[in-house]
């Protein structure tokens, strides 16, 4: 993991680093008006509505559906690749795959290019379940986007993949939170935060 650099002549603690990046009050920076909060709220709205259907109809968990959604578009796929796409840890993912396997929704096969690795695909039953959940997924997305005109919708669809890909790089599990704070915090060189009244 990429960790925090220690300054010459002394040991900087995590608390010291946090103190260095405390935001001045005049910035009026409110976390609940920023992207991480908005993304979390949107994800919760969508997940709650979808879960009410796929849990009732197919007994799926939130993680189970997230895994199926990725497999449905990228099969055959390794667990490692799924971890990276989903920004989740290997233990949680493995548990979710095991549950889907127990329900007969996924298949495992040895990767011919690397016999130590397994590739995951949807089973015939899994494909049928996937195809029955996707229509509600589509409807939920349309409901969320219906507040925007076609131009704004196009901008969102163009911008979001860039944000996701960049976030996967700069906020990867290999980079500590201290490094993120050093590079992008308020006191980071060249970083400015817009004030919102």
TrEMBL record:
HTH marR-type domain residues: 32-165
SUPFAM superfamilies: Winged helix' DNA-binding domain
Pfam families for this protein: MarR
UniProt xrefs under InterPro entries: HTH_MarR-typ, WH-like_DNA-bd_sf, WH_DNA-bd_sf
UniProt keyword Transferase present: no
Keywords, in A-Z order: DNA-binding, Transcription, Transcription regulation
Keyword Transcription annotated: yes
Protein name: DNA-binding transcriptional regulator, MarR family
Originating species: Roseovarius litoreus
